[in-house]
Design brief:
The protein has 146 residues and is an alpha+beta fold. It has a domain of 98 residues: SH3 type barrels, CATH 2.30.30.100. It has a 6-stranded mixed beta sheet. The N and C termini lie far apart (49 Å). The mean pLDDT is 83.
Length: 146
């Protein structure tokens, strides 16, 4: 096998690997936990992404709502995951998921905020146990401090 045929079988591991998702509907999960859905239009060498007709999906339990965001630029360093949405599977209703009408969005956002606050308390307790009993660093204390 020559070098050219070997290189043609090597998967892309850079931002060039997302070129197949251009002009497709995608789901992007950000570092802060937000989920964006939209049509992936463009990206650059830093994997900054441009979404068209973007919505931010907020979910609590099995209920969800979408906040329209329009044209959305996502800084590449904030992307945790990007995946193409299967449009055929999206059309099949999921009985476990309950989409809410836009009028119910304020209540959903309030419930989401309360859920995030409760999760923050639980995470703080876990961090304290890991720090105290397992020798982990306190949040933000890791780094090059010799």
């Amino acid at each position: 096998m020559d070098a050219e045929s070997i290189l043609s079988h090597v998967a892309f591991t850079t931002s060039g690997s997302i070129v197949d998702c251009i002009d497709k509907k995608v789901l992007i999960i950000l570092r802060d936990g937000r989920k964006l859905i939209g049509v992936f239009r463009s990206f650059d060498q830093f994997a900054n992404l441009v979404l068209q007709d973007a919505v931010e999906r907020v979910s609590v339990g099995n209920r969800y709502g979408d906040i329209p965001r329009g044209l959305f630029l996502v800084r590449g360093e904030n992307v945790v995951m990007l995946g193409e949405i299967d449009l055929d599977a999206e059309d099949i209703p999921n009985p476990a998921a309950v989409p809410l009408p836009p009028a119910a969005l304020p209540q959903l956002l309030e419930a989401h905020k309360a859920e995030a606050a409760a999760r923050k308390v639980v995470d703080a307790k876990k961090s304290e146990v890991l720090r105290r009993e397992r020798g982990f660093c306190a949040e933000g204390a890791e780094g090059d401090g010799y």
